[in-house]
Amino acid sequence: MQKVIAIIGSTGMLGIDVNAVLKDENAAIHNFNSINLDITELNNVMNALIKFKPNYIINCAAYTNVDLAETEKDKADKVNHVGALNLAIASKEINARLIHISTDYVFNGLKKAPYNENDDVNPVNEYGLSKLKGENAIKDSKASYIILRTEWLYGKNGKNFVNTILKLADTKKSIEVVDDQFGSPTYTKDVAFAIRDIIANDKGNNGIYNITNAGYASWYEFAAEIIKVFKRTNCVIIPVLSDKFVRPAKRPADSRLDCSKIKLDYKIELRNWKDALKKYCYDIGYFIL
Ligand SMILES: NC(=O)c1ccc[n+]([C@@H]2O[C@H](COP(=O)([O-])OP(=O)(O)OC[C@H]3O[C@@H](n4cnc5c(N)ncnc54)[C@H](OP(=O)(O)O)[C@@H]3O)[C@@H](O)[C@H]2O)c1
């Protein structure tokens, strides 16, 4: 039978790629963004979703401005916590399975090894706290759910580190980038394919899964690879320590995620981040042999 899937946050960087990947599947897709469905209002959520009775609700919606969340914490909480709770309530009510996207920012980054799904959480900023509250609300809701924690996302349709470095490289001879924060650069298209594969082979279990491209880097290493892949070698990337750039929100220093659980349960293993970056380069038409 054809699956019915609601994509929440379908105009976001990840949501657009999820839509692009799922529309090639045999599924009826319903797209929602903040204009046609404000997830912070439970009535709206119920009314919108009950009409379609989706089998899956994929929540890519979030308040994602990490620095601004320090001063707009109520706004961040409303979308990332209350919004997630509302979607969980609706999922339970209409018997849908909720696939919710979360973040490495639930961790404080002090473990000095990749985090697994059972590690203690302790966010160091308001965005991370709001996302953690969203996770907890879903876990406590008795809805059927999968929470996917990812990190360092970039994709064709959003503000992201790759595009920032490329823009800077066109006008500057050198760029200073922090070399003491570690994670896995992750291509949104690869996460979208993973979501497709989870739905295709769904075990029906509740749980949290880490999902990132394989391998790890510092922001400096990531920037240096961008310059190499996109052939912007006139610009030099200079490694610096993060205390050189004081930002409103603290970041976890080392939020690498261990993705072995999703490999074990769902046979999903994303390609290495360097290969994903080359694919992104190709996908956006920059690939020069
Ligand atoms: N970007 C990263 O590096 C990163 C890292 C780790 C985890 N994540 C998580 O990955 C997910 C996707 O992130 P992204 O970067 O793709 O986000 P994004 O580009 O900022 O998109 C956010 C989406 O949320 C929607 N939205 C915001 N407030 C809403 C509301 N009140 N009701 C309904 N929809 C609302 C937006 O709709 P409008 O377009 O209408 O405003 C937009 O479609 C999020 O859960 C984020 O926390 C992101």
Task: For the structure shown, list the relevant keywords.
Rossmann fold, alpha/beta, six-stranded parallel beta sheet, single chain, 289 residues, two-stranded parallel ribbon, 18% strand, binds NADP nicotinamide-adenine-dinucleotide phosphate
Description:
The mean pLDDT is 96. This protein is 38% helix and 18% strand. The protein has a single domain (3-159, 185-215, 251-271), classed as Rossmann fold (3-Layer(aba) Sandwich), CATH 3.40.50.720. The chain has helices spanning 13-22, 42-52, 73-94, 126-140, 161-171, 188-200, 219-229, 260-266, 273-283, and strands at 3-8, 27-32, 56-59, 97-103, 144-150, 153-154, 174-178, 182-183, 186-187, 207-210, 217-218, 236-240. The strands form four sheets. It has a six-stranded parallel sheet with strand order 2-1-3-4-5-10, sandwiched between helices. The longest helix is centred in the N-terminal third of the chain and has 22 residues, at 73-94. By secondary structure, it is an alpha/beta fold. It has nine helices and twelve strands. Helix 3 links the parallel strand 3 (56-59) and strand 4 (97-103). Helix 1 packs across helix 6, helix 2 packs parallel to helix 3 and helix 3 packs parallel to helix 4 (126-140). The structure holds NADP nicotinamide-adenine-dinucleotide phosphate. Residues 9, 11-15, 33-35, 37-40, 60-64, 79, 83, 101, 103, 131, 150-153, 158 line the site of NADP nicotinamide-adenine-dinucleotide phosphate (NAP).
